[in-house]
Design brief:
Layout lengths: L14 H52 L12 E5 L7 E3 L32 E6 L18 E10 L5 H7 L6 E7 L3 H36 L1 H11 L18 H50 L6 H29 L9 E3 H11 L8 E6 L4 E3 L2 H18 L3 E9 L2 E8 L21 H6 L6 H11 L3 E5 L6 E7 L8
Parallel strand pairs: 7-9
Antiparallel strand pairs: 1-2, 1-5, 3-4, 4-5, 6-8, 9-10, 10-12, 11-12
Helix pairs in contact: 1-3, 5-6, 6-10, 7-8, 8-10
Length: about 500
C-alpha cells in the first residue's frame, strides 16, 4: 500500500453510525448474558421436570408391582422391571421394549434379598448413571435411540416375600425373588426444549439488535439536526464579519447549552473584531498625526531652506519622533500583554519602596507640581519589578498631565491586599467616563493630551498590567481631582539574607 494513502478504518466516522454500532454492541452483550441465563434456566427446569416425571412413574410402577399387576408397555418414559432368577424382563416399555422381549433383560438384575430393604418406602429410590448396551436385537424404530448411551436411572428394589403367592405368580417370579423397577431419565426432552428456546432467543435477539441499531441511528440523527444547523451557520462566520447568531432551541437540553455557548463565543469574536478594527483605526490615526506634523515641517524647511529656523525644525522633528517612539513602544507592549496569560511572577516587589523611589526621581520641570509619597510599612506583592514600575509611572504621568498643584501617592497594607492610590488635584473625571478612560486611545481632552505628549494608551496599559498581576485598577470617586486605586494580592515579607 502506498505510504501516503490513508489507512482504511473499520470504525465508522459518522456519529450516527457509531452510536448505532455502540448501542447494538451493548444490546448484544446484554442479550448474550440474558440468553445464557435463559438457556441454563430452561435446561435445568426441563431436567427437573423430566426427573419429576420419571420419579412419579417409578412410584406408579412400584404400586402396580405391589398389587401384583404387570405394567403395560405404553409409557411416556423408558422403564424395565427385572427380577432374580428370571432371564427375561418382568415388564418393559417406553422404548425399552424395543429390545427383543424374548431376549435377556437389558439392565442388570438386583442382588437377592432375604428381607425387605430398609429404604422400601415409596418415596425412597436410588439414582445412578447406567449405560444402555448395544445389542443386535435392538430396533428403536422411530423412537429415541438409547443404545450405547449413559443415562441417569432411578430404581427401587422390591422383595417378593412381602407379596402374596398369587401376586408373585401373576408377576412371573418366585416367592423369594427380588424385583427391581428401573426408570430411565432421558435428557432428550430437556435438550429439545432448550434448542427450541435457543432458536427463538437467537431470532428474537437478531431482530432486537437490528431494531435497536436502527432506533439509535435515527434517534441520534434527529438529535443532531440542530447541531448540523449550527454547523452550517457557523461555517458562514468569518473573522471580519462574525455577526451571525445561532438559533437557540427552546427545549432546554444540551443543544441549547451548545447554541448559547456558540452565540457567546461569536459575540466575543464580534467584540474582539470590532475592538481590533477600532484599535487599528485609532493606531493609524495616532501615527498619522505626528507623521503629518513631522512631514509638514520638513517639507516647509526644504522648500524655503534660507528662511528656515533649522534648530526649531530639528526640535519639532525630535519631539514628533519621540511621540512616534513612545506610541510604538506602547503598541508593542499592549500586543505582548494581549498574548500572555495573566499571572504573577515569582519575584517579590516592595511597592512602598518603588513608589518612594519614583517620587524622588520623577522629573517635574515643565510646571511646578508637588509629588509626595505616604507609606507606613513595606508593602510586598509578587510580580515583575519592571512591569510594576511601568504601571506606577503611567499613573504618575497621567496625574502629572492633569494635576493643578499636587500629586499624592499612598501605599497601605489592608488585610491580604496591598492598596496603592495616586491622587491629583486636577479637574477630575466625570462619573460616566470612569470606565471609558481605561479604553485604548481614549482621551477626555484630545487637544490638551496631544499637546502634552499623551498617547491615550497609558491607563489601558496600567490596567492590563494590574490584571496580569491578578489585581484591579479603578477610578475611585473624589470631590477634588482624580484618584486611581490599585489593589494587588499581598505577598509575605521575604526573609532577610
Amino acid at each position: 500500500m502506498n505510504a501516503t494513502e490513508p489507512r482504511r478504518r473499520w470504525w465508522p466516522r459518522s456519529v450516527r453510525a457509531r452510536a448505532a454500532l455502540a448501542a447494538a454492541a451493548t444490546a448484544a452483550a446484554v442479550l448474550v448474558g440474558i440468553g445464557w441465563w435463559v438457556h441454563h434456566e430452561v435446561y435445568g427446569q426441563s431436567k427437573r421436570i423430566a426427573e419429576e416425571q420419571a420419579r412419579k412413574h417409578l412410584l406408579a410402577l412400584v404400586d402396580q408391582l405391589n398389587e401384583g399387576a404387570v405394567p403395560g408397555r405404553r409409557s411416556a418414559v423408558p422403564y424395565e422391571v427385572v427380577a432374580t432368577g428370571r432371564r427375561t424382563a418382568v415388564a418393559s416399555g417406553g422404548g425399552m421394549d424395543d429390545f427383543d422381549p424374548g431376549a435377556r433383560h437389558v439392565l442388570p438384575a438386583p442382588s437377592a434379598l432375604s428381607a425387605p430393604p430398609d429404604d422400601s418406602a415409596d418415596w425412597s429410590y436410588t439414582v445412578r448413571p447406567l449405560r444402555i448396551p448395544v445389542r443386535h436385537d435392538y430396533n428403536p424404530g422411530s423412537g429415541v435411540d438409547m443404545a450405547g448411551g449413559t443415562y441417569p436411572v432411578m430404581y427401587i428394589d422390591i422383595w417378593a416375600g412381602e407379596l402374596s403367592s398369587a401376586k408373585a405368580a401373576a408377576l412371573g417370579v418366585t416367592a423369594d425373588a427380588t424385583l427391581r423397577a428401573y426408570v430411565v431419565v432421558l435428557p432428550d426432552t430437556a435438550e429439545a426444549i432448550t434448542r427450541t428456546t435457543d432458536g427463538l432467543l437467537l431470532r428474537a435477539g437478531i431482530v432486537s439488535l437490528v431494531l435497536i441499531a436502527a432506533a439509535a441511528y435515527f434517534t441520534v440523527r434527529i438529535a443532531l439536526r440542530p447541531v448540523e444547523a449550527i454547523r452550517v451557520l457557523t461555517a458562514s462566520v468569518t473573522a471580519s464579519d462574525p455577526r451571525e447568531r445561532v438559533t437557540v432551541p427552546a427545549t432546554g437540553h444540551e443543544i441549547t447549552a451548545l447554541a448559547t455557548t456558540i452565540n457567546s463565543t461569536l459575540q466575543r469574536l464580534d467584540n474582539a473584531a470590532a475592538q481590533q478594527r477600532r484599535f487599528v483605526a485609532d493606531a493609524a490615526h495616532e501615527l498619522r498625526s505626528p507623521l503629518t506634523t513631522l512631514l509638514a515641517s520638513l517639507e516647509v524647511a526644504l522648500a524655503y531652506p534660507e528662511r528656515t529656523d533649522w534648530p526649531a525644525v530639528a526640535t519639532t522633528a525630535a519631539r514628533q519622533t519621540r511621540r512616534l517612539q513612545d506610541l510604538a513602544e506602547d503598541l508593542l507592549l499592549l500586543a505582548r500583554l494581549d498574548t500572555r496569560t495573566p499571572t504573577a511572577g515569582p519575584e517579590t516587589v516592595d511597592l512602598a519602596a518603588l513608589a518612594s523611589r519614583l517620587t524622588e526621581q520623577y522629573p517635574l520641570t515643565e510646571r511646578p507640581l508637588t509629588l509626595s509619597c505616604d507609606s507606613t510599612a513595606p508593602a510586598h506583592a509578587h510580580g515583575n519589578p519592571a512591569e510594576y514600575e511601568r504601571l506606577l509611572r503611567n499613573l504618575i504621568d497621567n496625574a502629572a498631565r492633569h494635576a493643578a498643584h499636587r500629586i499624592q501617592i499612598t501605599v497601605r497594607n489592608q488585610g491580604d491586599r496591598v492598596v496603592l492610590t495616586v491622587h491629583d488635584d486636577g479637574p477630575g473625571v466625570p462619573a460616566e467616563d470612569a470606565e471609558r478612560i481605561f479604553e485604548r486611545f481614549v482621551r477626555l481632552d484630545d487637544a490638551r493630551s496631544r499637546d502634552q505628549g499623551g498617547t491615550g494608551l497609558g491607563l489601558a496599559i496600567a490596567r492590563d498590567l494590574a490584571h496580569r498581576h491578578r489585581g484591579t485598577l479603578t477610578l475611585t470617586p473624589r470631590t477634588l481631582g482624580a484618584c486611581f486605586q490599585l489593589r494587588l494580592p499581598r505577598a509575605p515579607t521575604p526573609a532577610k539574607k
